[in-house]
Amino acid sequence: MKDEIRVKFEQALNSYRAAGERAKVDLEQELVPRQIFEMQWRENRDAVVIPALTQIAELLRSKGWQCQITSTDHSVVFEIYQEQMRGVAGARRPQIAFHADPDSLRIYMRSSTQSVSSPESPGEVGSPFTEEVIQQLVLKFFQRLTAEGPPP
Fold first, then answer.
1. In a domain, 152, yes or no
2. Number of other residues whose CB lies within 10 A of the CB of residue 52
3. Does residue 89 lie in a domain region?
């Protein structure tokens, strides 16, 4: 093989390898923030969100309300209801949910009372995401729920 042709093959091979390495670095740079976000969410979910909701659930249960906390890798749902209360927009029961969206790197909150469903956004996990913040958000939701009164 002529040296000139061999050099062109080697250039093509080097170019291909470099493009593969750039793609790998780009992917790693994209995954690192997502992995950090997911790790922070899991830590906040277990150390902040669920304990804050558990405190509220204990208070409300002592007053005759039904409460259920469920969680998955990316969300926590807190159902609060009495008697035959039903949520709107597909929710079985009135509920407030916190959802971690790894694509946007944000935590979203949505709620559904007996008559209103509303998405809201408390902000990113890196923001002050304390038990007090969670409890204030749930308090606003609960005030809306109780203002609606019992189901007809």
1. no
2. 22
3. yes
Q: How far apart are CA 129 and CA 121, in angstroms?
A: 12
Instruction: Annotate 67-95 with DSSP letters as a single string.
Output: EEEEE-SSEEEEEEE-TT---STT-SSSE
pLDDT of 132 > 50? The answer is yes
43, two tokens? 């830590």
Q: For residues 102 and 100, what is the distance between their CA atoms, to the nearest angstrom? A: 6
* CA dihedral angle for residue 129, residue 124, residue 92, residue 112, rounded to 10 degrees: 90
Please, which pLDDT band fits residue 114 given cuts at 50, 70 and 90?
confident
User: Which domain, by its residues, includes 63?
Assistant: 3-147
Amino acid sitting at position 77: V
**How confident is the model over 40-80, as pLDDT tens digits?**
899 999 999 999 999 999 999 999 999 999 999 999 999 99
Q: How many domains does the chain have?
A: 1
The answer for residues whose C-beta is within 8 angstroms of residue 35's C-beta and 6 or more apart is: none
b/e map 72-87, b = 16+ CB within 10 Å: eeebbbbbbbbeebeb
| This prediction's pTM | 0.76
The H or E element containing residue 52 is helix 50-61
